[in-house]
Design a protein that fits this description.
Layout lengths: L3 H46 L7 H38 L6 E7 L6 E6 L3 E2 L6 E5 L6 H5 L3 E7 L2 E16 L2 E7 L6 H9 L15 H7 L6 E6 L5 H15 L9 E4 L3 H7 L2 H4 L6 E3 L1 H9 L4 E2 L2 H10 L3 H14 L2 H14 L9 E3 L2 E4 L1 H10 L6 H23 L3 H8 L3 H16 L8 H8 L17 H24 L6 H6 L5 H8 L8 H13 L2 E2 L1 H15 L9 E4 L7 H10 L4 E6 L18 H6 L4 E6 L1 E2 L4 H7 L10 E2 L8 E5 L2 H17 L4 E6 L2 H13 L5 E3 L10 E6 L8 E6 L13 H8 L2 E10 L4 H4 L7 E3 L1
Parallel strand pairs: 2-4, 8-16, 8-17, 9-10, 9-15, 11-14, 15-16, 18-19, 20-25, 20-26, 21-23, 21-24, 22-23, 24-25
Antiparallel strand pairs: 1-2, 1-6, 3-4, 5-6, 6-7, 12-13
Helix pairs in contact: 1-2, 5-6, 9-22, 11-21, 12-22, 14-18, 14-22, 15-18
Bound molecules: adenosine-5'-triphosphate.
The site of adenosine-5'-triphosphate has 23 residues, from helix 4 and helix 6.
Length: 809
C-alpha cells in the first residue's frame, strides 16, 4: 500500500480525470448525434441533387465530377463521424476505470520524470496538449509491462528512448472508485493478477491488458516475425495474448490495417462466440473468425461433403476394430505430412503428360463431348503450358464447342416440341425480354452478333409494338434460339466453373494401388497399411464424401490443377490450438494468404488429433515454412487458469509436463470419487453440482470423452432431476453460463469454474493416445476439479502420486 498523502493525491487525480472525461463526453455528445444526422441527410439528398446528364461528353464529365464531389464530401463526413464516435466511445469506456497503471519516467538528460498513466485508450486534456491517459499500446506503455524501476529503455518507431523509471504503480478502480493502489518493483505485481484470476469464469473471455505478463507482452508486441509460434501450457494465456496482439496491431498500424484483414482460425464455432467480445471491449472491431472446417466446406461443398474433424476423432475414440483404427491413424499421419504434399506436387507434374481425367458433357442423355475428346484436346496443347492454363484453354474450347452444338440443336425436334407447347405466359415473357433488350439501343445481346451474322439486323418495328409476335420465320428462329440457349445455359455454367475436370477421379486414382501411386508420385515410403488406407479413401469418394484428413489435400490437388485461390488482402492469420493442424494445412494457409504474417498458438500437450504438429521443436515443418530467420518461437510455461492444486495434479499426467509452473493461487485438491454403478454416479454428481452452485460457481462443465457419452450423461442427469443442463454439440454456436455437458474435444480453449470428469474409469481412458484428451479435459478447470470412477480408475490416475488428490467413495 502507499502513504496516506499519496492515496489522497491519487484520489484527487482520479476525480479530476473523471470530471474531465464527463465534460468531454458531454461536449461531444451533440456533435456525435449531429454528425449522424448530417450523414443521413447527405445520403438522402445525394441522388436528388445530382442530375445525371449524359447527352454530350461535357455534360457527362460535369455529372461525373459532381458525383465525385458529393461522394468525397460524404466520405469525409463519414470518416469524421466515425472518428468522433470512436473517441466518444473510448471516453465512455474509460469512465468506470480510467487507468490501471502508472510509470514515472525521466528521459535521459531531462529533469523530473513524467507521470504516465496507462489505460485502455488515450485521453488528452481540453487543450489537446497533455496526455491524461496513455493507451496501453503506446510505445512508452511497454515499460509498464516489460521493465522494473531503474535505468531502462523502450523502442519507438523513431528509435530507442533511454531513461530512468522512478516508479511503477498499479490501480484497482471500479465504477470510478479507487479501491487499491500497489507500488511494485517487479513487472506486473501478483496482487492484481491474484484478484483477476480469483474471479469466476465468464461466458466470454476478458481482456487482460491491466495484467499482461512480460513474456506475454513479447507476443503482443512482436512486429518482426513472419511466423510467431507460441507453445504454451494449458491456461498460460495464449489465446488471451493473441487477442491483445490483434488489438495492438490494429492500433500500431491504424492507418493501414483494418480488422477484416486479420483472420482467426478457431477450434470450433462455440469458441468464436467465447472470444468475440475481447476486441470490442478494447475499442476495436472484431477480426474475421472462422474454423478450418468452415473454410473447407465453403470451397468443396456441395460437390463433395467433408467429414467434420470431430467425427474423425469420434471414430478413433469409439471404434473397437483395431485394424481399421490403425489404418486410419496411419492414413491421417501420412496425409498430414509434407511427404504427401510433395507427392501431390509430383503427381501434378505427372498429369502434365498423361492421366488427366474429365467428365463428359451430357445433354438430354446424349454425350455431346466425351471425356476422351477433352483429354485428347487437353494433351494437344503445348506441354510447356501449365496445367492450370491448359484447363483454361480447354474451358474456352468447350465453350466454343457448346456454342456450335447449341446452334445445331436449334433445328432439333425437341425444340419444335417445346415451341408448340410454349404457353402464353412463357411466350409473353420471351416477347417482353426480347423487346426490352432491343429497346436499349446500346445494349449488346448476348448472342446479338451471332444473330446478326446469320440473319442481319431485325428492325425494331418488326418486333411489333403490341404484345403479340408476328410469328414469321425470324420470330420462330428467335424463339428457337431462346429455347436452345436456355437449355444450354446450365452446361455453359458448369463449364465455366470447370466442372468438367474430374477432381474426385483424379484424387481417387492416387489410391488405386501402391505401384501405380509410386509411378505417379515417385514416392517410395508408404505406410504399411497402404491398401487399407486406399480402400477406406475410395469407399468414401465413391459416395462423394471426404474423410477430414483428405479434405485439405483434395483441395490442394484441385488447385494444383485448376489454379490456386489467393487472398491478398489479409495481413495477419492467427491459428489457435495450432497443434491440431497438420504441416500440410500450414503450407496451404501460407499459400492462401501470401501477404499475411502468421501467429500460431498451441500446446503439444493438448494434441488430441493424430495429424498434430509439434510446436516446440526448433526444426519443425512450421519453422521451415518461413525459414528460421523469419520465425520466432516463444514458450509460455506459467499456467494462470487453474489453482496450484489442479496444476500440480494435471502436469504429471504429461511426460513433458515437468516444466509447467502454476500461478500461486490455491483451492481444494482434485477429488476422485469411487463408485459402484451408473445410478450411484448420477446421484452423486447431482449432489456435487448443487454444492458447487451453492458455493457460487456459475460456470460448471461435465466433461465426457465422446459425444455419445455426453448424450448419456445428459439423459441420466436429466432423468434423475437435474435441471437447466446444457448439452453442447459440435453445432453449438454460443457459450453460455450454467451447467454444460460436453465432450473434451469441444471444451478446447474454453474454461469453467468447476469441471466434473464424467467417467475417469479404466474402461473409458486406457489408450496412451488418449492421455492428452484427458489432460485437456482436466485443465479446463479454474477452481474445482472432480473425477468419477466406476470400478477401476484409469491408469493415468493410478500412475499419479496419491498426495495430489483426495479419494472419496
Ligand atoms: N496476464 C494475465 N492476466 C490475467 N489473466 C490472465 C493472464 N494470462 C492469462 N490469464 C487468464 O488465464 C486463463 C487462461 O488463458 P487462455 O485461455 O488465454 O490460456 P490458453 O493458453 O489459451 O489456454 P488453453 O491452451 O488451455 O486453452 C484465462 O482466464 C485468462 O483470462
Amino acid at each position: 500500500m502507499i502513504s496516506a498523502d499519496d492515496w489522497k493525491e491519487e484520489q484527487e487525480r482520479l476525480k479530476s480525470v473523471t470530471e474531465q472525461l464527463h465534460k468531454e463526453i458531454d461536449r461531444l455528445e451533440p456533435e456525435v448525434a449531429g454528425l449522424h444526422h448530417q450523414v443521413t441527410d447527405i445520403r438522402k439528398q445525394f441522388w436528388e441533387e445530382v442530375t445525371v446528364n449524359t447527352s454530350t461528353d461535357e455534360d457527362f464529365e460535369e455529372t461525373f465530377h459532381s458525383i465525385k464531389q458529393q461522394e468525397a464530401l460524404l466520405s469525409e463526413r463519414e470518416r469524421s463521424h466515425r472518428q468522433r464516435l470512436k473517441q466518444w466511445n473510448n471516453m465512455k469506456r474509460l469512465l468506470p476505470s480510467p487507468y490501471f497503471g502508472r510509470i514515472d519516467f525521466a528521459e535521459e538528460g531531462e529533469g523530473s520524470p513524467e507521470r504516465v498513466y496507462i489505460g485502455v485508450s488515450s485521453f488528452v486534456d481540453e487543450e489537446g496538449l497533455n496526455f491524461l491517459v496513455y493507451d496501453w499500446r503506446t510505445p512508452i506503455a511497454s515499460l509498464y509491462y516489460d521493465a522494473s524501476p531503474g535505468e531502462t529503455e523502450y523502442e519507438t518507431p523513431g528509435g530507442t528512448v533511454r531513461g530512468t523509471m522512478a516508479l511503477k504503480r498499479q490501480y484497482q478502480i471500479r465504477s470510478g472508485e479507487l479501491r487499491n493502489v500497489f507500488d511494485t518493483s517487479v513487472t506486473i505485481g501478483d496482487e492484481l493478477l491474484q484478484q483477476a484470476l480469483g474471479n469466476g469464469a465468464d461466458t466470454a473471455m476478458k481482456s487482460i491488458v491491466a495484467t499482461i505478463q512480460k513474456e506475454q507482452n513479447a507476443i503482443v508486441r512482436d512486429v518482426k516475425s513472419h511466423m510467431l509460434i507460441v507453445q504454451g501450457a494449458a491456461g498460460s494465456g495464449k489465446t488471451s495474448a493473441a487477442l491483445q496482439r490483434a488489438a495492438y496491431l490494429l492500433y500500431r498500424y491504424r492507418n493501414r490495417l483494418t480488422a477484416d484483414q486479420i483472420v482467426l482460425f478457431s477450434p470450433n464455432p462455440m469458441f468464436n462466440s467465447y472470444v468475440s467480445t475481447v476486441l470490442p471491449e478494447l475499442g476495436e472491431d472484431n477480426m474475421q473468425q472462422t474454423t478450418f472446417q468452415e473454410y473447407l466446406a465453403h470451397w468443396l461443398e456441395p460437390e463433395v461433403s467433408v467429414e467434420s474433424p470431430f467425427d474423425g476423432l469420434e471414430f478413433a475414440l469409439t471404434t473397437e476394430d483395431r485394424d481399421a483404427y490403425e489404418a486410419r491413424q496411419q492414413g491421417i499421419r501420412y496425409k498430414a505430412s509434407e511427404a504427401f504434399l510433395d507427392a501431390l506436387r509430383r503427381y501434378a507434374e505427372w498429369l502434365c503428360l498423361q492421366g488427366m481425367r474429365f467428365i463428359g458433357i451430357t445433354f438430354m442423355d446424349r454425350e455431346l463431348v466425351t471425356a476422351e475428346q477433352m483429354s485428347s484436346k487437353f494433351y494437344s496443347f503445348d506441354s510447356s503450358v501449365s496445367l492450370e492454363n491448359r484447363i483454361t484453354m480447354l474451358r474456352d474450347w468447350l465453350l466454343k464447342e457448346l456454342a456450335v452444338l447449341e446452334r445445331k440443336e436449334r433445328a432439333a425436334d425437341w425444340v419444335q416440341d417445346e415451341l408448340n407447347y410454349l404457353d402464353m405466359e412463357d411466350y409473353q415473357a420471351a416477347y417482353g425480354s426480347i423487346r426490352k433488350k432491343y429497346e436499349k439501343e446500346d445494349a449488346v445481346f448476348d448472342f446479338t452478333q451471332q444473330y446478326l451474322d446469320a440473319y442481319g439486323d431485325v428492325p425494331k418495328r418488326e418486333l411489333g409494338e403490341e404484345n403479340v409476335f408476328d410469328f414469321g420465320d425470324q420470330e420462330e428462329e428467335f424463339l428457337r434460339r431462346m429455347i436452345a440457349k436456355e437449355r444450354f445455359a446450365p452446361l455453359r455454367r458448369q463449364v465455366k466453373r470447370l466442372k468438367f475436370v474430374d477432381v474426385i477421379g483424379l484424387y481417387s486414382s492416387l489410391f488405386d494401388d501402391a505401384s501405380k501411386y509410386r509411378d505417379m508420385t515417385g514416392e517410395q515410403e508408404l505406410p504399411s497399411l497402404w491398401s487399407d488406407i486406399c480402400r477406406a479413401t475410395q469407399e468414401k469418394l465413391e459416395r462423394k464424401e471426404l474423410l477430414y484428413e483428405d479434405a485439405t489435400p483434395f483441395l490442394y490437388m484441385k488447385e494444383l490443377v485448376e489454379g490456386a485461390r489467393r487472398n491478398n488482402d489479409v495481413r495477419h492469420v492467427f491459428v489457435d490450438e495450432g497443434q491440431d493442424y497438420s504441416p500440410f494445412q500450414y503450407t496451404f494457409l501460407k499459400r492462401l494468404f501470401p501477404h499475411a504474417r502468421m501467429t500460431v498458438l498451441g500446446d503439444f500437450g493438448q494434441a488430441i488429433f493424430p495429424q498434430a504438429t509439434n510446436l516446440q521443436e526448433t526444426d519443425s515443418p512450421l519453422v521451415r515454412l518461413y525459414g528460421e530467420e523469419h520465425t520466432t518461437l516463444i514458450r509460455l510455461v506459467r499456467s494462470y487458469r487453474s489453482t496450484r492444486e489442479i496444476v500440480s495434479f494435471t502436469k504429471p499426467l504429461l511426460s513433458e509436463g515437468e516444466g509447467i509452473v502454476p500461478f500461486d493461487r490455491s483451492g481444494g485438491k482434485p477429488i476422485v470419487t469411487m463408485l459402484d454403478n451408473d445410478g450411484e454416479r448420477t446421484a452423486r454428481m447431482l449432489q456435487d453440482l448443487a454444492k458447487l452452485q451453492a458455493e457460487g460457481f456459475g460456470s460448471i462443465a461435465v466433461i465426457t470423452k465422446t459425444a455419445a457419452e455426453s448424450r448419456e450423461a445428459f439423459g441420466s442427469l436429466t432423468a434423475a432431476g437435474g435441471e437447466n443442463l446444457l448439452l453442447i454439440t459440435k453445432e453449438t454456436l454460443t457459450f453460455e453460463r450454467g451447467i454444460s455437458i460436453l465432450p473434451a474435444y469441444l471444451a478446447k480453449g474454453v474454461e469453467f469454474d468447476a469441471v466434473l470428469i464424467y467417467d475417469a474409469s479404466a474402461h473409458v481412458y486406457n489408450r496412451e493416445s488418449e492421455r492428452k484428451l484427458f489432460y485437456t479435459a482436466c485443465t479446463r478447470a479454474m477452481h474445482r476439479l472432480r473425477l468419477y470412477v466406476i470400478g477401476e480408475a484409469t491408469p493415468y490416475l493410478t500412475g499419479l502420486d496419491r498426495e495430489l488428490y483426495v479419494t472419496e467413495s
